[in-house]
Amino acid sequence: MPQIKPLQAGIMTNDQKKKLCEKHTQCPKMKQSDLAKWAKHTFNLLKIPGQTTISDILKKKENYLGMSSAELSLRA
């Protein structure tokens, strides 16, 4: 039986933020509210990230897309 990841509280990892940016690149017409719901489901978050959080992540999109593997494992 596959192991279920526990719900994650709080801050998203840089890797999760990068994946959110990649999703936005793949689906540029997707609303930020829909991206937030996608992130909650995909990353098993306790709550849906706020619109401001999604907006802040997307503003720094180039930073997240250019991060090294070591940087991606960090929470920021």
UniProtKB/TrEMBL annotation:
Q: Which InterPro entries match?
A: HTH_ABP1_N (IPR041188)
Q: Which Gene3D superfamilies match?
A: Homeodomain-like
> Which superkingdom is the protein from?
Eukaryota
Q: State the organism of origin.
A: Melampsora larici-populina (strain 98AG31 / pathotype 3-4-7)
Question: Which residues belong to any copy of the ARS-binding protein 1 N-terminal domain?
Answer: 12-65
Q: What is this protein called?
A: ARS-binding protein 1 N-terminal domain-containing protein
